[in-house]
Every structure is written in C-alpha cells, then in structure tokens.
Design brief:
Shape: elongated
Strand order of the largest sheet: 1-2
Largest sheet: 2 strands, antiparallel
Radius of gyration: 23 Å
Number of helices: 8
CATH topology of the largest domain: Fumarate Reductase Cytochrome B subunit
CATH class of the largest domain: Mainly Alpha
Structural class: mainly alpha
Helix content: 55-70%
Number of domains: 2
Number of strands: 2
Oligomer: single chain
Order of helices and strands: EEHHHHHHHH
CATH architecture of the largest domain: Up-down Bundle
Distance between the termini: 20 Å
Low-confidence stretches: 49-58
Length: 227
C-alpha cells in the first residue's frame, strides 16, 4: 500500500479487521501502481477510481485508532528496549565485570543497588517480551508475505535483529530458570556470560533499527498531531 505516490490508499491491518482503506480517493491519478503492486490481487482500477469521497469519513476513527496504537506500540518498544539495555549494562559493568563472581550487591550505583537494578532489568525484559509478541502478531502478514515471496534477503537486518533479540531473551530467561535450582549455578553463570556478550551486538542492531526508522516516527507523530 505504501507505493501510492499520492497517499490515496492505506490499509486497516488489525488482527481481527483487515481491508483496504481509501484515504483521499479524489487525489487518485489512475496510475495503477497500487493495483500492480498488490501481491494479493485485492485491488482493481474500478475499485480505486469509483469509490465516493464520502466513504472515507466512515473509516476516519478506526484509521486514527489504528495509527495511534501502532505509534504507541513502537514508541513503547523503543523506550522499553532502551531501559532493558541500560539496566543490563549497569549490572554488567558495575557488578559482573572484574568482580570474579563476588558481587558487591549492596553497593549503590545512581541510587540503586544490585537487586534494584536487577529488578528493573527483569521488569523491562518481561515488558519488552510482551510488546515484541504483540508486534510480531501485528506484522504477521508482513512476515508471511516476506517468506512466501522469498524476500528474506532484502530484509536481512530485520531478521538478524529479531533472531539476536530472541537468542538474547532465551539466554536471559535460561539464567533465571537455572537460578531456581541449587545445582544450577554453573549453568546460570554460563548463560549470563553469553547473555552479557550478545547484548552488545543487540545494542548495535537496536541503534541501527531506530536510526533507519526515525523518519517513520517523526511522520507518524506529525500525522497524529494533525488529526
């Protein structure tokens, strides 16, 4: 839908509600880029050019809610990801590195001790895990199209970012699980070591991901503010 040069069309892509959305049919020039670009054959020239302008009003509120939810979801992902990475680095650099397994747990850094930073990190990890699940569910159709159309090579960065995040999350959760067992100390420390190192790679991909999508955040905010 993003191929329309005049921003005539968009789509409602909620998990329970999907269809083409004509924003401003009066601006349609009949170039047929949307018809040719739709991989599902959902559009025809008659559908685009014959839609009355009045029909756009009935979808204004659903479209606004859809755009607002998407914006809030993505902003929440960024904020929670930064909180997760920051708290993780505070634990790693101030309590793990150079302490040879002896953690000065009560030593405070920026007003918080080890247990408080660890609690903040765990909360942010659980939150971002839930948000990522929602995000993946929201973009299910995009992933399906990418796989069926063999477009993975064009989206290597996104796929790698997702895989690195999943591996980072797995090592973190595994360390928590082994902490519950009396004989799981070796496994817990092993997963923590892997987790700490892979997080550095995750941070690089996170920054790159945000930078590449900075224009989307700016434009989405402007559209919401305008509406």
């Amino acid at each position: 839908m993003t191929g329309c040069p005049n921003k005539v069309i968009d789509k409602v892509d909620l998990p329970w509600h999907k269809h083409v959305l004509l924003l401003e049919p009066g601006k349609c020039t009949g170039c047929n880029k949307c018809v040719k670009g739709c991989e599902f054959g959902a559009l025809t020239s008659n559908q685009i050019t014959s839609e009355p302008k009045e029909s756009t009003h009935s979808h204004t509120k659903p479209q606004n809610r859809n755009a607002f939810f998407k914006f809030v979801l993505n902003i929440s992902l960024v904020i929670t990801a930064l909180a997760m990475v920051f708290s993780g680095f505070m634990i790693q650099f101030n309590y793990h590195m150079g302490h040879h397994g002896l953690i000065a747990a009560m030593e405070k850094v920026w007003g918080l001790d080890y247990y408080q930073w660890s609690g903040l990190h765990k909360i942010s990890v659980v939150l971002i895990s839930a948000l990522v699940i929602i995000h993946l569910f929201w973009h299910y159709q995009w992933f399906k199209t990418m796989i069926t159309k063999k477009l993975i090579a064009r989206n290597r960065q996104v796929i790698l970012f997702l895989l690195i995040f999943l591996f980072t999350a797995f090592t973190g959760y595994a360390a928590w699980v082994y902490a519950q067992f009396d004989d799981g100390e070796f496994q817990r420390k092993l997963f923590i070591e892997i987790h700490d190192k892979i997080t550095l790679i995750l941070l690089a991909f996170l920054i790159l991901h945000i930078v590449k999508r900075r224009n989307w955040f700016v434009n989405a905010y402007k559209r919401l503010k305008k509406n």
